[in-house]
Every structure is written in C-alpha cells, then in structure tokens.
Amino acid sequence: MLLRDLIEHAAARFEAAGIDSAEVDAQLLAGHVLGLSRGAIQAEVIRGAELTETQTDELNNLYGRRLAREPLQHITGKAHFRNLELEVGRGVFIPRPETEFVAQLAIDAIRQVAQPEPIAVDLGAGSGAIALSIATEVVNSKVFAVEKSEQAFEFTSRNFAAYKDCGAALILGDLADAFNELNGTVAVVVSNPPYIPIDAIPRDIEVRDFDPALALYGGEEGMDVIHHVSATAKRLLYSGGSLIIEHADSQADQVVQLLLADGWRQVRSHRDLTGRDRAVTAIK
Ligand SMILES: C[S@@+](CC[C@H](N)C(=O)[O-])C[C@H]1O[C@@H](n2cnc3c(N)ncnc32)[C@H](O)[C@@H]1O
C-alpha cells in the first residue's frame, strides 16, 4: 500500500477524532515502523514509497492505538526533552515542552554558582527529564533526584542508567523526607510537582487516561505537594540557594503567596515561551 495513502487516511481520522497534530503523529508513527525520521518519511511520501503487507498491518495497528487516544510517546516508548531521549510508557508522566523552560531556569541558576561541584536536587523526577538535563548540560553539577511512584521509578531508573555517565543519583522515596544527608548543602532545588486540583479533571483524554494520577493531582487546590516542596527545599538549600517550582498558569499568585508565607526571598514569577505563568523562583 502507498505510504502517502496510509498517512493521509490516518491523519484524517485523527483529526476527526479531535487529535491535535494529526498529520505529524501519522508521520511519526510511520517513521517508528520504518525506522526513519519524520523528514525521511516526508521524502518517502514524495517518492511514492510503498509498504509491504506486514508493514501496513503493523502501522495500521499503531494508528488504531493512537485513535483510541493512547499518547504517541507511549506507542513509540520514547519522549524527547531538550537534548535527551527518554524511555516512557504506562506509569510515568510524559515530559512536556513547557518544562524545558523550567529546566532552563534550574540550569541558569546552577551555572551561576561559584562552587566547583554545586549540588542540584529534583523533587519528583518522573522520567528524569529535569534531573538528567541538568546533569548532562552542567557537567560539574552533582544531581540527586527522588521519585515516589514505583511504576514511574522503573522508567526513571532505566533513563538514569542510559545517561549514567553524567553521574546523577536517584532514590525511590517521598520528597517530604528525602536526602536528609544533604541538608544545608544544596545550591538548587527544582520541582515539577503534581499541581492539578483533585476535581479539575484534564480535558485531554491522553492526560486524563494515561498520565498517572500521582503525577497530576495535588490535593483539593492542587497545592498540597507544593507545600512539601517548599519545606523540603528550605531544609536542603544553603542560605542563598535557589528554588524553582513549576505550576499551572492559574496558580502563580497562590504559589508566590505560599513561598512568601514560608519566608522565601526574591520570590519571582516567570512566563514560559507561550506567555503563560509557568514557574516561580525564590531564594532561601
Ligand atoms: C508532574 S510529574 C513531573 C515529572 C518530571 N519531573 C517532569 O517534569 O516531567 C510529578 C512527579 O512527581 C512524582 N511525585 C508525586 N508526589 C511525590 C512525592 N511525594 N515524592 C516524590 N515524588 C512524587 C510523581 O510520581 C511524578 O513522577
């Protein structure tokens, strides 16, 4: 069957089902089956490439899964974040493009530290996106990360193993009482915690049905885990150390007020590349 026909047909069905980026997803899944990049798939379409019956069946099977709203990254098993390729699937949060900006805030903060080996801690590591970005991009940093979910931790561990040369350390545990041995020695604490209010069910089926609840929901107002992040960061950071917290675009004021009440200094709100309030930084 013609690759072009398969992609066009799938893209039309994806679009009708309300999937954003319908054509891109159809191309990327074809690329997954054929072992080609999206650009190479576009070239194959132009040259009129045909798929074997086995390839056609395999691709149609993946298109069926996507049509059932399984996230693209679960089907391919991969997510791209900054310079990283991370293993993802059921049980782990898929890293989002907006978090790349939050990782950048942490990278900028740790690069300003005048120590030979500044320590950074990521609270709620998920796939390891933030922790591994810092560890691979700031080579003199020493990065520690904690993840509570055993299911997520399987992915976190594999991703930390894949990037083991950067020396980042990972533990399974609760961020509320993690890393007591580092108290007062840390330069940067960063977290993208669960922050959705418990009754604000996400609109996107991919998020609602496939991202783990522990990664999404932060109690009645979405602030429960952020409270713990503030307390743990206070314990870990030395005086003058930086805290970076990602939050929902509607929560900037709440997070700022929480940090001010907890005694943080220089509490600032930051917008992501789409202009939405996305993160708050503060100094201990
Ligand atoms: C929104 S996800 C972010 C994952 C990753 N840092 C990222 O930015 O893609 C939040 C993560 O925090 C973890 N988590 C939630 N509560 C936690 C806790 N009390 N201690 C440690 N990890 C926790 C979740 O399992 C999930 O992996």
How would you characterize this protein structure?
The protein has 284 residues and is of the alpha/beta class. The chain has 2 domains: 3-68; 78-283, Vaccinia Virus protein VP39 (Rossmann fold). The chain has helices at residues 3-16, 22-34, 38-46, 53-67, 72-76, 97-111, 129-137, 150-162, 205-210, 213-216, 224-236, 252-261; strands at 78-81, 84-87, 119-123, 142-147, 169-172, 186-191, 237-246, 265-271, 277-283. It has a 7-stranded mixed β-sheet, with helices on both faces. It has a two-stranded antiparallel ribbon with strand order 1-2. Helix 1 packs across helix 2. The model has no long low-confidence stretch (mean pLDDT 96). S-adenosylmethionine (SAM) binds next to helix 7, strand 4 and helix 10.
Number of domains: 2
Major sheet: order of its strands?
5-4-3-6-7-9-8
Which CATH-level-2 architecture of the largest domain? 3-Layer(aba) Sandwich
Kindly report the CATH topology of the largest domain: Rossmann fold
Helix content: 40-55%
Radius of gyration: 21 Å
Mean pLDDT: 96
Low-confidence stretches: none
How much of the residues is beta strand, in percent?
Answer: 15-25%
